[in-house]
Design brief:
The chain is α/β, with parallel strands linked by helices. It has four domains: 2-223, Up-down Bundle (Rhopdopsin 7-helix transmembrane proteins), CATH 1.20.1070.10; 236-333, PAS domain (Beta-Lactamase), CATH 3.30.450.20; 344-497, Alpha-Beta Plaits, CATH 3.30.70; 509-756, EAL domain (TIM Barrel, Alpha-Beta Barrel). Helices cover 55% and strands 20% of the residues. The protein contains 28 helices and 23 strands. The protein has an eight-stranded mixed β-barrel, surrounded by six helices. The radius of gyration is 56 Å and the shape is elongated. The structure holds ligand C2E and calcium ion (2 copies). Ligand C2E binds next to strand 16, helix 18, helix 19 and strand 20.
Length: 758
Amino acid sequence: MRTGLSVAFGILIIALLVCMVIAKKSRKPIGNALSFLLAGLAIPVLGNLILILSTQKTISTVGYYIYFIGMDCAIYSLWYFTHVYCDMGKPKRGLNILVCTLFVADLIQYAMNPFLKFSFTTEKILVENKSYFRLIPKLGQTYHRIVCYGLFLAVLVVFVVKMIQSPKVYRDKYGVIVLSIIMTGAVESYYIFSRKPMDMSMIGFGLLGLLVYFFSIHFRSMKVLDRMLAGMASDMPDALFFFDKNGKCIWTNEPGRQLIGVSKDNYDNVKDNLKYLFGDELDLESSGWFKRVTLGTGDDKQYTHLAMRSTVDEKGKITGSYLSIRDITDDQREIKREMYRSTHDYLTGLYTKEYLYENISKRLKDDHETDYMIGYIEVSNYKMINDVFGKEFAELTIKKIAGFITGNVSSKCLYGRLSDDSFGILFDKSKFDEDVVKTHLENFTVKDDNLEHQILMHFGIYDITPEDDIDVPLFFDSARLATTMIRDYYHDIIVYYDDKLRNEIIHNQLITNQLKNAIETRQIRPYLQPIVDSRGMLAGAEALVRWIHPDEGFMNPGMFIPVFERNGLIAEVDRHMWRCACEILANWKERGIEAFISINISPKDFYYMDVVPTLKSLVEEHGIDPVKLRVEITETVMMSDSMDILKTVDELRASGFIVEMDDFGSGFSSLNLLKDMNIDVIKIDMKFLKDSERNMKSGIIIKNIINMSEELNIATLTEGVETAKQFEILYAMGCKLYQGYYFSKPVPLEDFEKQWFD
Ligand code: C2E
Ligand code: CA
Ligand code: CA
């Protein structure tokens, strides 16, 4: 018995110390308090071990001291540990001091015991034929017991209260300890009060330590975990169905029950109902799959994501399976909306450029039967519409055009919005009636609050041939390029991209690149055409631009002016021409020649430069009288933006220039203009003259224009005089100045000077 007990104590001490080291090393917050407790519990066990082994009084007495002082340590550390284990925070300061004082007092009385014999003495008895020193407790020992029992009881109370207050799932965490405390306490009491030698209760103490160690460090309540997982599963928005390893449904959460309509206590129909809802092919016998199923039709469509997984135990054995069903309708709708947004124009709902290209490309690959054409529709002056009529009207215009396209295309068409002011269409060539489309486009209007505005559009067409590689952006580029060629015209609405146009575009690009050099090397220069008075004497000359091209030879203005008017480079040409005219005039001035030179101003010059300051600085620079530099502005320019031009004309005249209205009569309100516009000369368009030979009325009109101008103090000049007869008629009508092939064609400066000044 003695040996057995001492072996047991020895093992316990080692076990407690090992656990103490592990607890200390573990990173858990409870580690410190636990290792303190385990150390505390090991000491009284050690004391008892000494008692059992010793046969000498002194050693036994030392054993008792270790036992009692160890008990103090054990109880104190238990009290401290309880605070941490029961999540009560650190012991309160006041209470801690009181407890410590009680223990310190206990230690003091033991310290004085050797002298006063106040705590205990021992008596020798025989146990198993060996001497054993039994305890004879005194008053001090009673104090020791009161302190220890008191605190032990307090700890017990704390655990009991904790056990009662905690949720069910946590109860075993406290319950086991309560039970072991009671048992240990009871056994201990039995030994103390029965005064039986060889205190076995220490085994209880040791086991209490190990139990506490297990619960603190290794125990993870499966019940707690189960509860948590079950709670989570119940709260999940997904429908969950759990099956045991035989495939029988054992549980489903609320969304699951609602989805297939089963009650909480009867899962018999789960499988049948699932198959009814998701189709017979739903495979509930195997796991590890997922799939998407769409329920319902039309707007009520519901999109679901199903996943079947198996559950395994720690050894990897299948314990069952579960099916999760997620409603992904919202996600799916959002994806669809996102898809729509990225493929459809926000304003018109038409395809975006990229999506249109993608669709056209697909169509052309799939459909080899139909002959298709690409159409590019451009709204003219969209920026101006925006600026003048406002964004709202501009957007309304775009929407109306979108509606117009949608309403007029045939079934095989694909169409979309390419940019702010352009649309693209793929259409069936055989269904395309150019005249009908042209009429539609010509008559397209958008109504403001009260006014109907005509919206000008241009329609460029690229005819796709079977030899073409499918390159949709290139098709549209070509159609767009074609429209740039007619952008400025009101009556050309539809244009085809063909070889002629292609060559023209290439040619335009070429001469555009060459322009700067052509100006610098004077390939571009003025030809002069004389302007004569009624006696046939030279009055002045019109400077008309010519390009003597090294490769292409002689180029008339008609071959390059429209190109530069479109791309804005006309300002460079005119500035150069004006400078040349000034140089000639400066030279004439030196030679005492009195003739004037008329220069031409393109309508586009007003967009690209400040015309008046440019002209003023040119005459100043060359030291010539502005009267000698006459300025020709065409009648059509005078009609558009009339207020601004009026101002320009006044400024020019105020600066001393003579302003001529070119091509008079070609517009519609020429006569009207005369009364508002302060001009010096009108140049009557030769078209009138051509007619006047056959048509009496034209003759009468010219005569009246001349008479009226005379009264308004405006000189008249007729251009395009080709015959002596024309000259005679005009002379008879009272025309003052004449220009035309009858007198001379436009010629180089040297020829002009030779003819008129030599
Ligand atoms: P425009 O200003 O009306 O010039 C008169 C045109 O009529 C010139 O054509 C001239 O050669 C031609 N012409 C003169 N007399 C007769 C005639 O008796 N019979 C016929 N059939 N034609 C005659 P050109 O030089 O080809 O110029 C054409 C147009 O190009 C000009 O018309 C003018 O609008 C423009 N242009 C010419 N030079 C310049 C320039 O330096 N700058 C600008 N912006 N435009 C210019
Ligand atoms: Ca002219
Ligand atoms: Ca003219």
